[in-house]
Amino acid sequence: MKPKRMKSVWLYHLNTGGCNACDIEVLAALSPRYDPERFGMKLVESPRHADVIIFTGPVTYQALPRAIEVFRVARPIGVLAVGACACGGGIWHDSAAVLGGLDPLLELLKKMGVKVPEKIVKLPGCPPRPHAILYAAAVLAGVIEPRSAASGQSRYSSPSQIAERLAHRETGEAQEPSQQHR
Amino acid sequence: MPGSLAPRLTAYREAAEGRATIRQYPYQPLPPPPRLRGVIQIDPEKCIGCGACATACPAKTLVFDRERARLVYSVTRCIFCLLCVETCPKGAITSLREYEILVEKTPTQVVKHEPARCIKCGRVYASKKLLEEVEKRVKRKLPHLKTCPLCKLEQAAMITAMRVLRARQAYRKR
User: If you measure CA to CA, which chain B residue comes closest to A91?
Assistant: First the structure.
């Protein structure tokens, strides 16, 4: 196997005001049952050691300064947004107390001049399964390729595949509904 | 079998046999559990555009745009509660039973409907399919379905005003 990276991927778990369900699933995904340490992944305590940030929660305004500080200090290579809250605000998307997920936070960081990670992957679900978190982390680390319909595993979805399917079903031009309620 | 202990027992048995780690995952996909809730798919032929799913959706990720008579679903905010599946009167929404839902952008499904315009003001207020469905259910033609709620309100106000006027005129004549 061709080495794809120079260093093991170390994870930092950042909860920005979530309800803890995603955090429990993240910890379950880091347990020996799923064993991400075979890919060199481990949870680190300091954001300075982190390569990938596992991001949960809808970014409440109380958590916002800390989240900005973590991104500023960690300078991660990738972010994995776990859960519907982190992906787009979830059921809190129209709340006055939250920023609404990862995308507005990254926009804010860009405005502040903080380096924004290149690889951003979202994993919706409330919460997603530990399997899915392991799969997402493996994809982010380059261990496996995202599964697609072409590889004969058509029952299982990948980013491109979901987009394809939805595009196939689509009968008009796509539009972002997320801004309608904000 | 719903509520079965079998998957949990499988995990314990595997752990007892020394197979604690699921080694083949994530290299090979695992079959999803029987009652897994996943990404929903809307059948545009069955959908009548009533907007019940959008009302039921707690995350408002299913949005029914009444002014353009279209239903929009985006994956990222969805919490996969499948309330929309339960609510849909036509059974047009199905769940895909998938859990490896990894996205970079926001995949969106748009279901466009033929808009029904108000005969008075010309505004789009519903989909034609919905009005047909309503007439089919009550088994007769409903002429007042062809005006939008606002125009209906206006009409009702006018009728009331006319009644008041007539009553006043009758009072003066007396």
Answer: B59
**Is the predicted pLDDT of residue A164 greater than 60, yes or no?**
no
Q: Domain ranges in chain A?
A: 10-144, 147-175
For residue B25, being part of any structural domain is answered with no
Q: How far is A90 from chain B (nearest CA, A)?
A: 5
Q: Please indicate whether, in this complex, the C-beta atoms of B96 and A143 are within 8 angstroms of each other.
A: no
Predicted ipTM of the assembly: 0.77
Are A126 and B81 in contact (CB < 8 Å)? yes
Q: Which of residues 51-70 of A touch B (CB under 8 A)?
A: none
- 84-113 in chain A: CB under 8 A from chain B: 84, 87-91, 93-94
How many helices (H) and strands (E) in chain B? 5, 7
| Nearest CB to A32; choose among B20, B39, B76 | B20
**Termini Cα distance of chain B:** 79
Amino acid letter, residue A23: D
Confidence of residue B145 (pLDDT cuts 50, 70, 90): confident
Residues 6+ apart with CB under 8 A from A4: A142
Per DSSP (E only), the strands in chain B are 40-42, 62-65, 70-74, 93-95, 108-112, 115-117, 124-127
What's the CATH number of domain A10-144, 3.30.420.40, 3.40.50.12280, 3.60.15.30, 3.30.40.10?
3.40.50.12280
Domain count for chain B, please give it: 1
